[in-house]
Every structure is written in C-alpha cells, then in structure tokens.
Amino acid sequence: MEHSGIGRLGKKHLILLILLTALYSCKEDVEVPVKAPDTVVVEAPKEIYEFGFKLNDYVVKRDTIQSGDTFGKILERNNISYPKIFEISEKAKDSFDIRKLQLGKPYTLLCTNDSLQSPRCFIYQPNKEEYVVIDFQDSIKTYTRRKPINYVEKEVSGVITSNISEAMEKQGASVILAYKMSDVYAWTIDFSRLQVNDKFKVVYTEKYIDDTIYAGIDNIKAAFFEHNKEPFYAFEYETDSVLGLTEYFNDEAKNLRRAFLKAPVKFKRISSRYNLNRRISLYGNRVRAHKGTDFTAALGTPILATANGTVIESKKRGGNGNYVKIKHNATYTTQYLHMSRRKAKVGQFVKQGEVIGYVGMTGNTSVHMFAIVSGKTGNK
C-alpha cells in the first residue's frame, strides 16, 4: 500500500513537471512587446517680429511716458551714460524732436539679451499707426515708419428714432461714423433737425493694424440719407491726386460742398454782423465800419477754414490780436481774428473745415469770440 501511494505521488509530480516545461517553452516562443520610451519633440522658439526687428534677439522692455520723463531720463534709468545720451540726442534731433514725447504714449526699449540688458534701440509710438525708431546699436539712426494697415470695407444702415449717434450705436457702429456723416452732409442736411423715421445707409472703411488692432474709421466711400422723405446721395471722388483732396458728389454729379462754410465755428451767438455804419464806444462812438462777423463761443473752441486756400498771414497784431489770413483764389480772402492760439502757418495749404486756430480774447475784444472778415483785402 505504501509503495503504490508513493508511485501515484511520483506520477503527479511527473505530470506537473511536464506541464511546467511545456508552458515555459511556449513563453520562449512568444515575443513580449516592449513599450518604447516617449519621444520628446523640442520646438524651436517662434520668431517674433515688430518694428522691423526680430524681438527674440533682445530683452524687450515696454512702458509709457510718465510725468517728468524725458528721453535722457529714460535712457539714464537704463544705465546709458550721459555722454552717450548726448551723442544720441544730437544725432537724432534732425529727424525727431525728442522733447516732444507725450505723456501716456507707449515706448519700447530693445536691450541686449545678457545680464547687462543694455538698451540698443528706443522706439516711440506717437499714435497707433506710426512709430519713431532711434537705433544706436552701431551707428546712430533715426527714422519714422508706419505699421502695416489693412483696410476693411463695411456698411451699416438704420432708421432715426432720436439722433444719428444713437442710431449708429444701435447698429454697433462707432459714434465717430456719425460725426463723419454729419461732415459729409454739412452743406445739405442739418443733423440737429433730423426727423423720426429718416433713413440712412453708409459704406465706409475701417483701419486695422497688423490685421488685429482697430485703428479707427478711414473714410466714407458712399452714403444715402432719406431726410424728410427726400433722398440725399453722397459719393466720394478724388479731385486732386497731388494734394490728396477728395470731395463728395450727389447722384447728379453736383458737389455737396458749397463755396464757403456758413459757420466756421460752433458758436453760441453772433455778437456783431457786417455793418459799414456801425458806431463803437471804444472809439468815441464814431462810425467805424465793421467788415466782418463776430461769433461768441467758448474759449478754446476750434476755428475752421471756411474754404480751401493758402495761409498768407499768421501773426499777432493790434486790434486783430492773434489772426490768420487765408487766400482762397484771385478774388476772395478771409481773416480770422482774436484767436487765443493760431495753428495754421504761413504758406500752409488748408482744406475747408480744417482747424486753423482757437477762439480767444486777443486784440480789441472783451468776450470769448472770433471775427471773420471776407473780401479782397482789409482788416477789421
């Protein structure tokens, strides 16, 4: 009994040994997949260009002009020595007046990409479109450039319920577009007297810098306005390619712009009209011809040129105070008197509606006003 029991146990061990051997043989024939290590792709840094420079090559410092900032102080804060600042300023002054940095305007410093981070280039942006580069990496160079601008044509239409600005805003358009439309129709429609249910449609272009930054409205290409049930069309047309003059014409090819603006300023009232027999107490109540029109307006109100022309005088003299005189053609000239400040310069060509100065109290006047004198010659 004992012998047979041992025999059965041995047989079991033998069978188990055979099974294990077979299983091991199968494992040797099967290839076990081995997971490959993850591949790490190292991408080269994206190249970034702005102002004509590859920014990756520099440490870029951006800021805005703060109160008390000057070109010299900005460079001094960034470890540029006074002799170097003086040299840069002297060579830059013929191309850009560094004293005209405006509060709040952005500037950029391109500095060396090392521990010193020494400035190599100063870039100033007076507006969204332009930038001034003062490059002192090797030789000192100063130049002005414009950012690439994309023009996008758009159109908007609406119905007047109260005023043109509100109607524009309801359509998601800028209120500036309303101002531009009022300029286009300044000689045909009084926008302060629009009627409910007046209709409009305007085709215009917007400017975008680098395709993304909105830079305002460029111009109105065409417009339609139905005012008091009467249609008014406006189509832009370039009348002088050399001077860049454009005008607006209606559907009958007639210019919408009249010869002279009726009111070259947003005035409160007319204080004195043209009167050759006017008596003035300031001059002993004697008759002293008044060959112009006096407008009372808020101090500093912009004064506009009544028509296209060339500035032949811009100075301060006697009873006229600060004044500007414009020659429009061989027959007509206009003078604008009593300004607080003159903007137009002698020899400058000004367009109708362009700001030439600001309402003031210079010369013989006791109120905020300016006077306009028209004719071939003459002072007030």
Task: Please tag this protein with its features.
alpha+beta, Nuclear Transport Factor 2, Chain: A, Glucose Permease (Domain IIA), nine-stranded antiparallel β-sheet, five-stranded antiparallel β-sheet, 38% strand
Give the SSE map.
Layout: H1 2-29, E1 49-50, E2 53-54, E3 58-64, H2 71-77, H3 82-92, E4 106-112, E5 119-124, E6 130-135, E7 141-146, E8 149-159, H4 164-170, H5 175-184, E9 199-209, E10 213-227, E11 230-240, E12 245-249, E13 269-272, E14 279-280, E15 286-287, E16 292-296, E17 302-304, E18 309-317, E19 321-327, E20 333-342, E21 349-350, E22 355-359, E23 369-375
Antiparallel strand pairs: 1-2, 3-4, 4-5, 5-6, 6-7, 8-9, 9-10, 10-11, 11-12, 13-16, 14-15, 16-23, 17-22, 18-19, 18-21, 19-20, 20-22, 20-23
Taken as a percent bin, the fraction of beta residues is: 35-45%
Query: How confident is the prediction overall: mean pLDDT?
Result: 80
Domain count: the total is 3
Proper CATH architecture of the largest domain:
Distorted Sandwich
Q: What is the overall shape? A: flat
- In the CATH hierarchy, what is the superfamily of the largest domain? Glucose Permease (Domain IIA)
Distance between the termini: 150 Å
What is the chain-wise order of helices and strands? HEEEHHEEEEEHHEEEEEEEEEEEEEEE
Radius of gyration: 38 Å
Pick out the low-confidence regions: 267-280, 287-292
Q: How many strand units?
A: 23
Q: What class, by secondary structure content?
A: alpha+beta
- How many helices does DSSP assign? 5
Helix content: 10-25%
CATH class of the largest domain: Mainly Beta
Largest β-sheet summary: 9 strands, antiparallel
CATH fold call of the largest domain: Glucose Permease (Domain IIA)
